[in-house]
Specification:
The chain is α/β, with parallel strands linked by helices. It is built from 15 helices and eleven strands. It is about 40% helix and about 15% strand. Bound molecules: glutamine. The site of glutamine (GLN) has 14 residues, from β4.
């Protein structure tokens, strides 16, 4: 598990010629091979990565300047459309699918000199919190392989902790970057909705899908975000943003932070509360003003999320009809049968469950009672966050009610699995930026994450506080 230098140092070393892009790519590919038993990776992109590395090295030899991520290898969750490998979303539905174009996020990283070396495992279509919903394999937690790595970006988080690359990309619709970051002990950033283009990423719930990095430090996450951020004409929900390449300094005595009351109740694992409290105390003793903030509607966030997100999923997954994408029913009698067979063979249990719930809450007769009401609750949550950020610069709390659970513990109980998302879905529904940073370990050595949330499009400010908290002496 040899760790990587900061992304900035790797790129500087490649640019200066003290190492080569090829050496960095080969190192990443070796680490992927060595960490195979953790099942974090679905496929490698070795040929294309080596070709790109050689091109970058040749440009450097020719005296060119090659970009802020020159020769930095990275891994993308397998729901990012990429050249040089299949894009499966870890589902049987897309087994064998070769993307005809690449995601904007990856194009921008490549333009800055970064090199995608592999595709990471996930819960199929990003539905889940443990990677156990993957149709391919279950990723093991790198800290303790008897436990889950979290999900749905579990492969990406495990890959970073296993030293397979200095950073990985994940998607976060309701916590899928923050939860695995917390379970594996790495940094995971969900930016504000609209900061990074969703173009070329397999859609889950379009109104909350966000793209972000998992990395070894807040500074690395900031740099990667700055490269991916900005308007994209291929995604009309993207916004202009001014994401800095480096993290700003903060003055602790000018900061006011709110601890989310609803996230620190007795239902939350005591060691998780202790770890979060220790970080909060450290901030306090360094001059940060700390207050308790109550957001009562957050207790409704999970129910609201599990109405709205399946609704959007049922719509987004309707494109997989056995005609246009990979899984095509072999012996269909007629068109109707080919739809039904392809969907019943290609989708796993969780996708089917969500399609059924989503279709139900959108159906006439139930729309007002479920979908419309959940939208009203969503607005209430947004308003409550806005009111909170009038009073404090940031909100803090745990990422999840407990550290990583054991493999197999929640697979047969979807309700129990959903409950683990209770602390992450609020920020997703509100479209605000949120990050998980390591906050120590419990007695059995399992990592615990601290979640920090900030107001909409306050991503630079969030990252500045996160970096300060990351290094705050306790
Ligand atoms: N665990 C949540 C869910 O299953 C979040 C998933 C995600 O963010 N992609 O819906």
């Amino acid at each position: 598990m040899a760790s990587w230098d900061s992304i900035e140092s790797i790129a500087a070393a490649v640019q200066s010629g003290s190492t080569t892009a090829l050496e960095q790519v080969e190192r990443a590919l070796r680490a992927i091979e060595e960490g195979k038993e953790y099942q974090a990776i679905i496929s490698t992109i070795s040929d294309r990565a080596i070709e790109q590395a050689k091109m970058i090295d040749a440009r450097i030899v020719a005296g060119e300047k090659v970009g802020s991520l020159a020769g930095v290898p990275f891994i993308a969750k397998d729901n990012f459309l990429t050249f040089g490998s299949e894009t499966t979303a870890a589902s049987n539905m897309l087994r064998g699918f070769k993307a005809p174009y690449q995601s904007t996020a990856i194009n921008r990283l490549e333009a800055a000199g970064a090199i995608c070396v592999a595709k990471a495992n996930l819960d199929a279509f990003a539905h889940g919190s443990s990677t156990e919903n993957s149709d391919y394999m279950t990723t093991k937690n790198p800290v303790n392989p008897a436990h889950v790595p979290g999900g749905s970006s579990g492969g990406s988080a495990a890959a970073v902790v296993l030293g397979m690359a200095p950073f990985a990309l994940g998607t976060d619709t309701g916590g899928s970057i923050r939860l695995p970051a917390s379970f594996c002990g790495t940094v995971g950033l969900k930016p504000s909705y609209g900061i990074v283009s969703r173009s070329g990423v397999v859609a889950m719930a379009s109104s909350t899908d966000c793209i972000g990095p998992l990395a070894n430090s807040v500074a690395d996450a900031q740099l990667v975000l700055s490269v991916m951020a900005g308007r994209d004409e291929l995604d009309s929900t993207t916004i202009e943003s001014d994401i800095k390449t480096t993290v700003s300094e903060v003055n602790p005595s000018q900061l006011k932070v709110g601890v989310v009351k609803e996230f620190m109740t007795k239902d939350v694992d005591s060691e998780v509360r202790k770890a979060v409290q220790a970080k909060v105390d450290a901030l306090k003793s360094n001059g940060v003003q700390v207050v308790e903030v109550s957001l009562p509607s957050l207790t409704l966030a999970l129910a609201c999320y599990y109405v709205l997100v399946p609704a959007e999923i049922s719509s987004n997954l309707s494109r997989y009809d056995g005609q246009r994408f990979e899984h095509i029913a072999a012996d269909a009698k007629d068109l109707e049968d080919s739809y039904v067979s392809a969907r019943s063979e290609g989708f796993g249990r969780e996708a089917k469950r969500r399609i059924m719930i989503g279709t139900y809450v959108l159906s006439s007769g139930y729309y007002d009672a479920y979908y419309k009401r959940a939208q009203l609750v969503r607005t209430k949550i947004i308003k409550e966050f806005e009111a909170a950020f009038e009073k404090v610069d940031a909100l803090v709390g745990p990422v999840a009610p407990a550290p990583a659970f054991k493999l197999g513990d929640n697979v047969s109980d979807p309700m129990q699995m959903y409950l683990g998302d209770v602390m992450t879905v609020g920020a997703s529904l509100a479209g605000i930026p949120a990050i998980s940073i390591p906050a120590g370990k419990n007695e059995s050595g399992l990592p615990i994450g601290l979640q920090i949330m900030a107001g909409r499009v306050q991503d630079n400010e969030l990252l500045a506080l996160a970096k300060y908290t990351e290094g705050v002496p306790s």
